[in-house]
Amino acid sequence: MRAILTFARSWSALAAARSLGRKGIEVVTGDEYGCSAASFSRYSVAHFPYPNPDREPEAFLDALEEAIRAHRPADGQPYVLMPVHKETYLISRHRERFEPLIRMALPSYGQIRQVHDKGSLALYCAGRGLPTPRTVVPATRVEFLAAAETFAYPAFVKVRESAGAVGVRKVADAVAAIAAFEEFAGSLGLGDGSWPILQHAVPGDDYCATFLFERGEPRATMTYHNLRSYPAGSGTGVLRETVKAPEIERIGEGLLAGLGWHGVAEIDFRWTGGDAVPSLIEVNPRFWGGLPQAVEAGWDYPYLLYRLAVDGTVARVDPPASDVRTETPVMGLLATLQEAVNDDARMEAMRRSFEGLKGSYVRGNRGRALRRFMREFPGTADVPGRWERAKALFRDHRRSVSDLFRWEDPLPALGVFYPLAVFLQSGRCSLEYLVGEGRAAVKSPR
User: Fold this and answer.
1) What's the domain range around 177?
2) CATH label of the domain that carries residue 138
3) Confidence band (pLDDT; 50, 70, 90) for 305?
C-alpha cells in the first residue's frame, strides 16, 4: 500500500504522512523544496521535487506524472494520490491524465471552482438562503468604488482566489477599502471576473467545520474552534480545540450535499455562540491547515480518504468527544505574544497621556507635566494586569499538542527551518510566502 502526498512543507502533509504511515501505508512526498517537514518523516520512503504549480503548471503536471510512474508499487498494491494544498485544483482539472495510473478521491474541478472562488461562493450561498455576510461581488472597478462609499464597516477586502488568509485586508472605512482594492488589483494583475470582493466583518470567533463526503453523502464531520490566529483578527488558526457545533455542521453539510461533493473539504464560519446563526465565510475544497487537530482528536481524514479512494466507499464515522488542543510551531507562540501585548483601549490611553505630556512640556510646565505623566503611566500601562493576562493566555498551551514535534518521529522538526528561512529571506513573518499565495504566486489555479 502506498500514497503520494504533495506540498510536503506543510504541517497538514506531515499529519497525513503520520496518519497513513501508522496504518502501514508507505508515503512518497513531493514539494518545490527539499527541506520540508513531511519529507523528513520516518514514514516517507521517498521524496521528489516539482516546479511551482502556479507559475509552471505544465511542468508540474509532467513532474507529478513522472513521479507517479517511478514510484508505482511493483506488486500491484493500492496506490493513491492525495494532493494536500491548492495543487489539488490543477490535478482535479487534469484528472483524466492520472486516473489510469493512480487512484484518487477528489471533487470535480467545477465543484472546486464553485466554492473556492469567494465571489462565486457568496453568490451561490445567497441564491440558496445559506447564511453569509453581506458581500459585494463587483463586475467592474467602478462598481466596487461605488459600493465602498455606502458599505457598512468594518469590512474585509478579499482576493477571490487565495488561501492561508493571504489577500485579505480588514478595513474601517471606504478610503481604506478602496486602497486595499487598488493594491490587490495592481499587484496581482486582477481584472474582469477576478476583482476583489467587499465583505462585511461579522462578529464572532472562527470555527472550522471539516468534512469527508462520498458522492454527496457525509461520512465524517467535526468542528474545531480557533483559539488564536496569526495575524490576529484576519489570520489563520494556530491554536485550536474541538467543539460541538451541530448547526454549523448542518449548514456545511447542506452546502456540500447540494454540490454532490466527493472527498474532503473544510468550511470557515464566524459565530458568536449560543442561538446565534453562524455565518459561512469561505470553503477550502481540499485538506486544511488545522488537519492535525482533526487527526489528533480522532477524525483520521487522511486514512478515511485513502480508503475511499481504494474501496470506493467508507462507513460513517463519529469518534468520541476529545478535549485535545493542537498548535502550529512558532506561529502559535507569535499569536499568543501578539494578543498578550495588544490592548487597544490602554494603548490609546497611553497615547493620550504621552500627547498631554508633550503639549504641557513645550508650554513650560515641565515639572508638573512630567509628574502627572508618571502618576498616570502605571494605570495606562497596567503592567500587573498585562502580566496576569499573559499568564492566562500561556496556560492555553499547557495541554496543546504540537503539529510538528513527536518523539517517535523527531526528524520533521527540521522542517521548522523552512518557515524560519522564509521569514529571514522576506524580512517579515509572511504567510504569503509560506503558502505560495499573493505575490509569491499567480492569482488563480489553471
Assistant:
1) 134-200
2) 3.30.1490.20
3) very high
